[in-house]
Amino acid sequence: MSSSLYNAHFGFTERPFSLVPDPDFLFWTRAHARAFSVLEYGLVTRAPLTVVTGEVGTGKTTLIQALLRRVDDEVTVGLISNAQGGRGDLLRWVLNALDVAVTPGADYVSLFQQFQGFVLDEYAAGRHVALIVDEAQNLGAETLEELRMLTNINSGKDELLQIILVGQPELRELIRRPELRQFAQRVMAVYHLEPMDIATTRDYIAHRLQHVGGTGKEFTPEATRCIFEESGGIPRVVNKLCDLALVYASSADQDKVGVGTIRELVRDGLILKPLGDPLLLAEPLDSFGKAAE
In what residue span(s) does the AAA+ ATPase domain sit (predicted)? Predict the structure, then answer.
């Protein structure tokens, strides 16, 4: 049974656990609210460099989408995702993100002059430029240093350009390298987005269910606890487990998802995990998220 059909079974208006980043479904955990505050702080204060990191699937891209919805007309934003390449390639990514046409065959100096001219023109028009780089851990030390050099356009009391980096935990380790000490000094704020705890996971599941017209109680407390154990509190994995569990439950004509359904889909191998990860925790958690005595 397809996941669209379980909507009718449970009375949902749409899939509550889609994997597509959607700000409409954003659940403001304390960690997400703080991460978002750091992102907004970077924009409002025009900080040269702001960094937010988190494990894969913790909702970083969703936060970016939410941030873009709140950007005012005084900010010209360029969003760069999965940028890679050597010297010169970064400027092409940047200009493309800002919808600036690149002259074919232009050398690095020409690209930089083109970028600098754009930033100065925006400033003259009463706007400043913000670059948001998603998956920034892929850039490498040399490219990060190139990004820092771009912020040298800023002069006087006004910041013409600011850069927001969002990436996986490796990004923090990258910034700590000795050769990037100048880069680190220009970072105004850093925040690491942690996975959800069991209480937050329970609230997260209920929030998404209620958002699509559900009661929020379509999963039993035991099933929710098992989902937390399996996912480690990573929202993307929680979504996968919940989506598949709803398919299983509806195909069995069940009104609620029980712990047996979660264990069944795990045994069926529907959730891929890195080698060495246990399918279930050796010690089950009690209702307070602690290991059972």
Answer: 46-215
Token reading at 285 = 């958690």
Sheet holding 128-134, edge to edge: 75-81, 128-134, 161-167, 49-54, 187-193
272: confidence class by pLDDT, cuts 50, 70, 90 = low
Q: How far apart are CA 116 and CA 278, in angstroms?
A: 52
CATH code linked to domain 31-191? 3.40.50.300
Secondary structure string (H, E, C) spanning 234-254: CHHHHHHHHHHHHHHHHHCCC
CB atoms within 10 A of CB 149: 13
State the pTM of this model: 0.82
The confidence band for 26, taking pLDDT boundaries of 50, 70 and 90, is confident
Spell out the residues 6+ positions from residue 284 whose beta carbon is closer than 8 angstroms to its own: 225, 229, 291, 292
pLDDT at site 157: 67
CA pair distance 130, 74, nearest whole angstrom: 10
